[in-house]
């Protein structure tokens, strides 16, 4: 069963007078893997908690399966939550239970399945995350990476259509993080669920997702196909992807503008964006990842809306014709011109149902310091 779409519009969250973020709008495409980046303290984990109804935003909507979680009844929210699986930062395992009982807990709590059926399901998920033989151990007897995988097995045990990952790489060394990244892609191939990952790990962000977003200065600066962010030359993007000190991000969420300008001037010419890495593919023997095909069709349909560097990266990744063979159509958009003069499949002008939450640029709004406008004047 394909994961469900998650549509967020105009979401605003504050704690008292402290605004966390405002006017967050994005759509998580069904069955695809999305990543949410941002400096520490920008409210990424708060966003996840709003998605599952643990926190209530002051404004906006979260529509899943036709239900607005912000305004629905408690009973309806309880039902919608069953669509979710969540991997928390520390795995959130019960220390007094072995891994089998930890993973079985949601089944015993929320279903009436027999112990025989529960055992079959638990062992299936244990095998999926590579923990066969360890199900009798306590959380304190295994490594941090194994605890992450056990937490992931528990998140999958009810066959959720949406899986949230809150910094799955935290506390893991680069090798274990690489294994976990491959596991995430393999699980997406097996489940076809909608995945959203909050992470600080740059390698994960570059190689795992179909889509990427960036929270910065209390707003969602951009969200869209991975190539949009990975080719964006805004200073905050380049600083974050390069992991360097020089730039607008400071020890607090943002630096004083004058301080950032002085640092950039003193640093001189800085390296731009790191080279784009290829996206991970499912391991041999895994099912064909259906999200790859859906994403290709969706991204090619919106290609003419995207910035030129992102268009170039997408064409390269899909082996499309070079830029010289792409030209404007009668409606003013750009389409791939096939060698026979026709328009490449998926590039026609009929794109009324395409996503509209692609935010390719960050520009300061002089009327509201710290506020940003999206290219084209949309906020």
From TrEMBL:
Residues 6-242 form the ABC transporter domain. Gene3D superfamilies: P-loop containing nucleotide triphosphate hydrolases. It comes from the Bacteria. One of its GO terms (molecular function) is ATP binding. Residues 351-364 have a biased composition (Basic and acidic residues). Residues 318-379 are annotated as: Disordered. Keywords: ATP-binding, Nucleotide-binding, Transport. Signal peptide: none annotated. PANTHER family: INTERMEMBRANE PHOSPHOLIPID TRANSPORT SYSTEM ATP-BINDING PROTEIN MLAF, PROTEIN TRIGALACTOSYLDIACYLGLYCEROL 3, CHLOROPLASTIC. This is Phospholipid/cholesterol/gamma-HCH transport system ATP-binding protein. It comes from Pseudonocardia parietis.
């Amino acid at each position: 069963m394909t994961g469900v779409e998650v549509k967020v519009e105009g979401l605003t969250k504050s704690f008292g007078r402290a605004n966390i973020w405002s006017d967050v709008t994005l759509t998580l495409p069904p069955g695809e893997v999305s990543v949410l980046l941002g400096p520490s303290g920008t409210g990424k984990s708060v966003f996840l908690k709003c998605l599952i109804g643990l926190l209530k935003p002051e404004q906006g909507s979260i529509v899943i399966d036709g239900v607005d979680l912000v305004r629905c009844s408690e009973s309806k929210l309880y039902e919608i939550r069953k669509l979710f699986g969540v991997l928390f930062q520390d795995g959130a395992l019960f220390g007094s239970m072995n891994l089998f009982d930890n993973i079985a807990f949601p089944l015993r709590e929320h279903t009436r399945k027999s112990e025989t059926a529960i055992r079959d399901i638990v062992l299936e998920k244990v095998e999926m995350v590579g923990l066969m033989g360890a199900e009798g151990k306590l959380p304190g007897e295994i490594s941090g990476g194994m605890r992450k995988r056990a937490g992931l097995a528990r998140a999958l045990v009810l066959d959720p259509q949406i899986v949230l990952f809150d910094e799955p790489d935290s506390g893991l060394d680069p090798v274990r993080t690489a294994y976990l990244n491959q596991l995430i892609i393999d699980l997406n191939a097996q489940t076809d669920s909608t995945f959203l990952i909050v992470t600080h790990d740059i390698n994960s962000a570059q190689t795992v997702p179909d889509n990427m977003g960036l929270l910065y200065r209390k707003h969602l600066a951009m969200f869209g196909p991975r190539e949009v962010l990975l080719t964006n030359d805004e200073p905050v993007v380049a600083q974050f992807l390069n992991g360097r000190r020089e730039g607008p991000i400071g020890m607090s969420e943002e630096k004083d503008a004058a301080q950032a300008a002085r640092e950039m001037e003193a640093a001189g010419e800085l390296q731009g964006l790191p080279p784009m890495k290829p996206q991970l593919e499912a391991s041999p023997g895994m099912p064909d990842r259906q999200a790859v095909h859906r994403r290709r069709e969706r991204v090619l349909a919106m290609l003419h809306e995207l910035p030129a560097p992102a268009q170039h990266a997408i064409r390269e990744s899909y082996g499309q014709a070079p830029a010289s063979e792409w030209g404007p159509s009668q409606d003013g958009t750009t389409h791939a011109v096939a060698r026979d003069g026709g328009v490449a499949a998926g590039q026609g002008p009929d794109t009324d149902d395409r996503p509209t939450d692609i935010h390719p640029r960050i520009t300061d709004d002089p009327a509201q310091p710290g506020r940003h406008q999206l290219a084209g004047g949309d906020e």
